[in-house]
Amino acid sequence: MAGLAPHDKGVASVPISAANAVDPRWENLAVGLCHVLGNTCRLARTSMSYSWNVTGPGARSFALVLEQHGAEMHDQLKPLALLIRGLSSPAYLNYHDTNLAVDPPRDGPMPGIEGMMAALVEGHRQASLSVDATLDLARDCEDAPSIAHLSAHLGLHRRMVWELSAEQSAI
After folding, report:
1. Residues 134-160: tens digit of each pLDDT
2. What confidence tens digit (pLDDT) does each residue in 82-119 have?
3. CA distances from 18 to 1, 14, 21, 69, 153 (A)
4. How distant, in Å, are the alpha carbons of 29, 34, 79, 124, 162 from that of 64?
5. Cβ of 165: how many Cβ atoms within 10 Å?
């Protein structure tokens, strides 16, 4: 198995140990994928929370966009976790350890539509930077499954920024 990517050993591959230490590049990729997983979960949660609480003119149309985005982000969670597990690393999820500044308020009123849009656009832009950095790590490892998934994932964030911006200009 020398020279093979951790994915090639199977999802339940041998644990990382001194006897079969993984190249640090692969460990960095696993950490990057965990950050992408956390960012994705946080954006999915925030999009859904906003969709349930949006009010005012254009609320119905915006809620539908948010529900779609939340569902699409949620659909990315399992494939990301499987990529991480394929690197013989635990797929931990700690969205308090993410670099996103987007969260629905715990107490007090929800922001208005403009505030929600601005927060989500910024969240997707920040998440894009994290995905892009992790994509560089995947390319460095020549990890085709991660490269393919992260490339599509980056496109998803960029599309969502465009759709939210278009929705914002329609209001």
Report:
1. 999 999 999 999 999 999 999 999 999
2. 999 988 888 876 655 555 556 666 677 788 888 899 99
3. 16, 12, 5, 42, 33
4. 34, 28, 24, 18, 16
5. 13
